[in-house]
């Protein structure tokens, strides 16, 4: 039998239960693995004898390996390429923000360096959003909860992670049970991230949104709305046909009523498609009765043949002014990070020699691995 990841929480717990072992040893084991990446099970001190033989026969400290880590030129972003045990690859991206930058009341802002990990939940994605590099891969497989957590484990060895966002490859709510299980582990020892520091981003899988708050209270929810009307949504996000806008907004209203939390609305700005003033007014009317923060995302071109163009800065600014000024909706423009390593939104797709399009990055970024780094910048969509 193939060994499972020790971070596959339900598998570990059920094996411990069958063997009659106290589950309180599990976080101790996870902590040791976090601090000693390539440990042998026998090296963990002070466990009951039965635990060592159970771990040896059924589990591995990690089933995935960090294939490479590529830094952006400005060092704000590191893209991790992670090889899963089935031979597939996923990407995770570390983004570093310096909260001291800028001034607050004429003084440097309080705060410091914080790192956010953008995590993948699937290999590829079924949703097929046609502005997204990952969508062009199609769906390959779901990650197990252990494989989701192992991304955090690999990243923790490079940076101190304060926030996790499920905005990498895949639609997290299409892999619901593994994602929920992984978050439950992330919010418990030894990881102990606050649920408020974890964000799930979804295109709007209505039935899953309806149960999310009950399963994990206090989580942040981000909805990739990307259009104020169903017709444009379906044009750019084919999967939206299954999630009519009116029903989605009703589900969000219920979610907000239960959670009492702001919802983040992601809106990718596509030139001439959804970025005109009329769209800003439609979006403002749609959202004015919600507690939301709208995040306008300048589109990252992912190849010279991309059907979409980036909205110019003036259009983005007018869109923001309308939402803020006319509808009093808090609206931000996403800071672009890591474009030179394709680690920005909608750019996560894996290309390796012999596995599809290959683009080298001469002079771009720096690799921590001797492995050959390739990327997606010329990907056709
Ligand atoms: S934007 Fe998200 S949901 Fe849409 S195809 Fe890309 S990864 Fe999937």
Biggest beta sheet summary = 11 strands, mixed
Name given to the CATH architecture of the largest domain: Alpha-Beta Barrel
Small-molecule binders: iron/sulfur cluster
Number of helices: 10
- CATH class categorisation of the largest domain: Alpha Beta
Shape call: elongated
Q: Biggest sheet, strands in spatial order?
A: 16-15-14-13-12-11-8-5-4-3-17
Terminus-to-terminus distance: 40 Å
Order of helices and strands: EHHHEEEEEEEEEHEHEHEHHEHEHEE
The name of the CATH superfamily of the largest domain reads Aldolase class I
Average of pLDDT: 85
Helix content percent band = 25-40%
- Secondary-structure-based class equals alpha/beta
Oligomeric form: single chain
Total individual domains: 2
Radius of gyration: 21 Å
Count of strand segments: 17
User: Which consecutive residue ranges, at least 5 long each, have pLDDT under 50?
Assistant: 352-381
Overview of this protein structure:
The chain is elongated and about 70 Å long. Strands 16-15-14-13-12-11-8-5-4-3-17 form an eleven-stranded mixed beta sheet, covered by helices on one side. It has a two-stranded parallel ribbon with strand order 1-2. A two-stranded antiparallel sheet has the order 6-7. It is of the alpha/beta class and 381 residues long. The chain has ten helices and 17 strands. The longest helix is centred in the middle third of the chain and has 15 residues, at 245-259. It is 29% helix and 21% strand. It starts with a strand and ends in a 14-residue tail after the last strand. Mean pLDDT is 85; it is low at 352-381. The chain has two domains: 4-55, no CATH class; 65-367, Alpha-Beta Barrel (TIM Barrel). α9 (277-287) runs parallel beside α10 (313-326). It binds iron/sulfur cluster.
